[in-house]
């Protein structure tokens, strides 16, 4: 009976460890490649956030380490798919207004590729506010044109009406 209990306990602990790794998003027997990126601001990036290339998830954030001074935050990226990432590729953190941010790798055009342990080039993303302004900007342009048209209509109306009509409109 003690042997059965011991075997059951070992199997239970093993299942707990495997389940915990699965929920974290890390592979149990998969070979993963680790590359690094250094940022001054990670914009809310967390462990297990997705890493995407051209909209397809190719990995996850494995670790974030800012050290004691927190001036340079080292982001460890765990790639679960075998992809050739050119040396001049850029890592950009894309904040999301509705969810957690993702890291996007924008592929470069170099003929040499990153290996396990190499560091990606990083750049600052424009941020959610700037992205919203890109969408809103054409609308603001149309509103500006409408205001100009309204101003010209009001100028025409004021020149057409006589003083008595203007006073009647003003009293209304």
Give a written overview of the molecule.
This protein has 172 residues and is an alpha/beta fold. The protein is built from three helices and seven strands; from the N terminus they run αβββββββαα. A seven-stranded mixed beta sheet has the order 1-4-3-2-6-5-7, with no helix packed on it. It is elongated.
What secondary-structure arrangement, pairings included, does this model have?
Layout: H1 2-24, E1 33-39, E2 50-53, E3 56-65, E4 73-79, E5 90-94, E6 102-106, E7 121-122, H2 127-160, H3 163-171
Parallel strand pairs: 2-6, 5-7
Antiparallel strand pairs: 1-4, 2-3, 3-4, 5-6
Number of E-state strands: 7
Query: Helix- and strand-based class?
Result: alpha/beta
Helix content: 25-40%
Stretches with pLDDT under 50, minimum 5 residues: none
Specify the biggest β-sheet: 7 strands, mixed
Give me the strand/helix succession: HEEEEEEEHH
What's the tally of helices?
3
Q: Which strands sit side by side, in order, in the main sheet? A: 1-4-3-2-6-5-7
Query: How far apart lie the N and C ends?
Result: 98 Å
Over the alpha carbons, how many angstroms does the gyration radius reach?
29 Å
The geometry reads as elongated
Strand content: 15-25%
Mean pLDDT reading: 84
